[in-house]
Amino acid sequence: MQRDGEVAVLRLQGGKANAMDEAFLKGVLRLFDEVESSDARAVVVTGYGSFFSAGLALPVLVGLDRTGLTAFMALFDSVMRRVFSFPRPVVAAVNGHAIAGGCVLALQCDLRLIADAPIKIGLNEVQLGLGLPSVVIEPLRLQLPASSLVPIALEGTLLTPDEARRLGLVGEVVPAAELLPRAMARARSLARGTPLALAQIKRALRGPSLERIQEESKRQSEIWLDAWFSPMTQERIGNAVAQLTARG
To answer: How many Cβ atoms are within 10 Å of 207's Cβ, its own excluded?
Structure first.
């Protein structure tokens, strides 16, 4: 964690493409714990290089049995809920590709700014044969226009920055060199209210969504796992892992 006055900057750097394995997710939890125990008034989350996060670390997960994958997805769920329910303003500075789980992480934030660069953002899970658990569905419902749900959730389109802005997935497209300063300025703006007032407003806005996540989490998780271990999805995941391995 780095500090710039009242803003904490969390730069995610957890391995190749910031793919989400257990260590990466536990690192996110640790960073948010550090922020909450500090006097920082707001948070900016960003990645490194050309990646915000490439999503779940498929080469690691593909070998897990149902019990192991259930435990991993419970960790993923808890991390996303931690960010979504964080009592202080959280801004995503999407510096690079934010694919699948990477896009999910950005969705948990209060605002999303993205670099004007040749990068993609989106939820392409459906193209792998995977569904979207409640920790993804509820932030989508809360933060995106209803008309954007088909291309983003059902079609799983990977979007350019301008396309993402038009659909409401991000709020601003910013020159890459200006992304972090602009995100920090927006975080400071969000932090103008008192901490108690901001926390109350966030709880009021997000509380119903968090309740639905809690109610649906186990059932939706089982459905997601059924899809993961289905023959068609296993074939698609296997192909995706082979492509990733071939790229080195």
So the answer is: 11
- CB within 8 Å of 122: residues ≥ 6 apart: 98, 99, 100, 103, 152, 156, 157, 158, 159, 164, 169
Supply 148's token pair.
């954007």
Q: pLDDT tens for residues 158-195?
A: 999 999 999 999 999 999 999 999 999 999 999 998 99
Res. 248: pLDDT tops 70: no
Domain spans of the chain, in order of start: 2-190
Over residues 11-66, the pLDDT tens digits come to: 999 888 999 999 999 999 999 999 999 999 999 999 999 999 999 999 999 999 99
Cα separation, 211 vs 32, whole angstroms = 21
Helix (H) or strand (E) segment spanning residue 43: strand 42-46
Give the C-alpha separation, 147 to 23, whole Å.
36
Angle at 25 between CA 50 and CA 94, to 5 degrees: 30
CA distance 168 to 129: 25
List residues with catalytic annotation.
125
Q: Scanning the structure block, which residue is given the tokens 């904490």? A: 8
Q: Token pair for residue 69?
A: 């994958």
pTM: 0.96
| 2-190 maps to CATH 3.40.50.720 | no
